[in-house]
Amino acid sequence: MDFNQMANMLRMQPTVDSAGQPIDTKRPIVFDKGGYEPHTELSMTATGNELGLPQANAMYNVPTIYNGQINDPSTFSGMNEIRKNVMQTPNAYKAYQTEQQAIPDAIQRSKDIGNARSDELRRAVLMKYMENM
Predict the structure, then answer these.
(1) Where are the beta strands (DSSP E) in the chain?
(2) 63 lies in which domain range?
(3) Sign (positive/negative) of CA torsion 13, 18, 24, 30?
(4) Number of domains in the chain
(5) Quick check: helix, strand or coil at residue 72?
(6) Which of 12, 39, 112, 131 is the one with CA 20 to 30 A from 33?
């Protein structure tokens, strides 16, 4: 744990990404289909219309992992699960005017989550490796 993470814990402040959005450090770690890459959110960028959000033309970055399952947005059932979960907290997601504005924040958020949860992710990879030995 680095100094900043420890300071945040001591101050009891929520962990946030570079854009000021909260990072849920209690989200379960799941692995991709190959079993090699750990994820906690696995963001996708979609329009408000696709997600059922009020600003239909705005772009949003939302997680595709819910209840420990990676949902494939290219499938009907996967997108329905994503939409259902996003609509439970519609104000939790920042609206962007364009996809070009949204994507860099999604990439940075992934990096921020990786940094905030690096020890947990490393342990999960080691445990997965040991399972497969």
Answers:
(1) 30-31, 38-39, 43-47, 59-63, 65-66, 69-70
(2) 3-131
(3) negative
(4) 1
(5) coil
(6) 112
